[in-house]
């Protein structure tokens, strides 16, 4: 079904590329980073990217061919869970809006994981209404001087680079006065403080920016075009959070099913009915995701994408809630409240209580479920928008 | 990994277009509404066009057995379209249940009947209550007497009023048997149904003789295949019902003004419709999967069918209920077609196994047993 032009690479050719890479860089005897760099240079990092930037201009659907061949050969991966923001958000934005220098400088270490990225978008006063953000960038020669505060920044404590949206013109309506940059997290004036979450851990942080200098050469897109660039990032974020091919019972439902199978003494009729409803919903959501991938592969992306993340959040919360109840007395316990600053989000290595608490963030991070419903209603169903009071007012005059 | 194609193929899209074309000329919901109390509830001329001219009646029957050699995926697309216009035609009773019952039955009696059903020259009804699900025991309501006559009464038989041939599961001395009986040999009494667009009837047999089609395990298997296939295809009908309800409601709330703005601009309604949309795209994915798997006789076909029925039955009811509510007073009137969809959706929820029954089946199939 995949529509292939004559010039496009085939799965067979990709396998040959993989074989060559493996022959020249035996994973068993090659340093991990050297192998990853060689894989990038061979165009086998993300095959749908351009030649020279880790890809081969191949159809995105063929990535799985490469990944499974390399996994079979025991090759190291780039630990995608540690660098999700770089892979899922920064990279597509740099590809779409970066200069040739940006692409050459950033994409390779981003993909190999040598440089971790974070996303400095949300602020204390600007969450769902991101376009109201207030962190200011004032032009000073060939630099911008930045002052303000970002918040809820996942991985800011491990990141060396950030994508950031800043207010460059307060005198125009909010959507028109922003610009988009990449920021060196080690620059003077960047201060990262952990923010502890309801799980006890601190995955995210607050980031204070005091007289931080960003060279204008680190701008992505035009001055004042920040909103359009940010929308590219956000669209990719929703795909990244909701996406990913799963086998049946992959994800949280698998954990719940396993508990049910292994612990007959915990079973009860009311829990069984809820379990089966959730099993069916999880299977439906899995198949929606599968259908979405098939649409993408056939070159006809469907609006299903906006639904996948909403479904995923609702489902994860219901499943993890049921799991706590199923555990009975053990559900009263929690492994450990110690404050930590983890490098990755690990849903499965911990107990049901952790999953229940962490899943609460699924309907907030990356666009709240309420905001996603607005998006579906207006962009997919074409329903009329709400009356807008803030559209044509200069940003500086908005009530806040 | 899922290998099923969950999209619509070009062939399926073309098929949909021609069926939709026919339905939009001959089966607008308002036409359906206008004829509900006419004493002629079925659109038999439309059915002839669909069954004979478009070949819908034998779509998934192999060519060598007199059909079109298509797949159940295609039959499922027809079901979506017929659901979308609550078409009063004997598609479920004859094309889905009867042909599926006969497809695997050996012998010339079954082959001849299948050929006629597939050509649209015969119309069948499967003599089991519409509530029968694939998980049930073989029915005992009809018994075979020593002289071979069939005796008993079965109620809620779908599409029986327009059938000329009855396929009758009956209990003989040695166990399950399957017969073909001319409709003229039975007493068929149409019931007043909740669903205004799909008839049910009571069938009484008092000594009628039929042609034996299968006995023993083959008879039980034929019935089970029919009910399982029916449950799979019904999921696509439910999808079509839900899609009409969503489309119609979105259209209405975009144009109806209250408080100086379209009611569709109120977030309370937007969010309900966004949730419904999400349910419907999920229903589409599971319904496609079920049609594909059962058509391919795949290992997990039963899981796919139980999942689809469990999910889609409730989505259709939810969509129809939202449709009525978001139309306000007009949604409560006889003159608006929304109630046709509500009545169909609610009846479909009971048809071919309730969602809860399918979940129980599923729990056994995927090893998540009850206490
Ligand atoms: C675990 C986690 C990780 C995160 N990581 C990052 C990160 O790495 N980088 C980053 O920039 N941000 C990150 N965020 C921030 C996240 O994007 C914001 O929290 C989110 O966009 C909501 O903004 P807010 O917190 O200001 O809530 P608000 O926008 O104030 O929302 C409060 C409530 O009001 C509702 N609401 C708001 N507007 C509307 C509306 N128009 N209609 C209906 N309801 C509305 C919301 O749905 C919510 O229920 C993270 C958040 C979490 C929880």
In short:
The complex is a heterodimer of chains A (400) and B (371). With 400 residues, chain A is α+β, with helices and mostly antiparallel strands.
What order do the helices and strands come in, and which of them pair?
The complex is a heterodimer of chains A (400) and B (371).
Chain A: H1 11-24, H2 32-41, H3 63-72, H4 84-97, H5 100-112, E1 117-120, E2 136-140, E3 143-154, E4 161-167, E5 178-184, E6 190-195, E7 204-215, E8 219-220, H6 226-242, H7 252-262, H8 269-297, H9 304-326, H10 352-359, H11 369-380
Parallel strand pairs in A: 1-4
Antiparallel strand pairs in A: 2-3, 3-7, 4-5, 5-8, 6-7
Chain B: H1 10-26, H2 29-34, H3 44-53, H4 72-84, H5 91-103, H6 108-119, E1 124-126, E2 143-144, E3 150-158, E4 165-172, E5 175-182, E6 187-190, E7 200-208, E8 211-215, H7 216-255, E9 257-258, E10 261-262, H8 267-295, H9 301-326, H10 338-350, H11 355-365
Parallel strand pairs in B: 1-4
Antiparallel strand pairs in B: 2-3, 3-7, 4-5, 5-8, 6-7, 9-10
Helix pairs in contact in B: 1-4, 4-7, 4-8, 5-6, 5-7, 7-8, 7-9, 7-10, 8-9, 9-10, 9-11
Bound molecules: flavin-adenine dinucleotide (FAD).
Task: Report on the architecture of this protein.
Chain A: Keywords: FAD, Flavoprotein, Oxidoreductase. The complex is a heterodimer of chains A (400) and B (371). Chain A is of the alpha+beta class and 400 residues long. Chain A folds into 3 domains: 11-77, no CATH class; 117-223, Beta Barrel (Butyryl-CoA Dehydrogenase, subunit A, domain 2); 230-380, Up-down Bundle (Butyryl-CoA Dehydrogenase, subunit A, domain 3). Helices cover 40% and strands 14% of the residues of chain A. In chain A, α4 (84-97) packs antiparallel against α6 (226-242) and α7 runs parallel beside α9 (304-326). In chain A, 41% of the residues are buried. Chain B is an alpha+beta fold and 371 residues long. Chain B folds into 3 domains: 10-122, Orthogonal Bundle (Butyryl-Coa Dehydrogenase, subunit A, domain 1); 125-216, Butyryl-CoA Dehydrogenase, subunit A, domain 2; 220-365, Up-down Bundle (Butyryl-CoA Dehydrogenase, subunit A, domain 3). Helices cover 51% and strands 14% of the residues of chain B. Chain B is built from 11 helices and 10 strands. In chain B, α7 (216-255) runs parallel beside α9. The interface between A and B is large, with 48 and 43 residues. The site of flavin-adenine dinucleotide has 17 residues of chain A, from β1, β3 and α11.
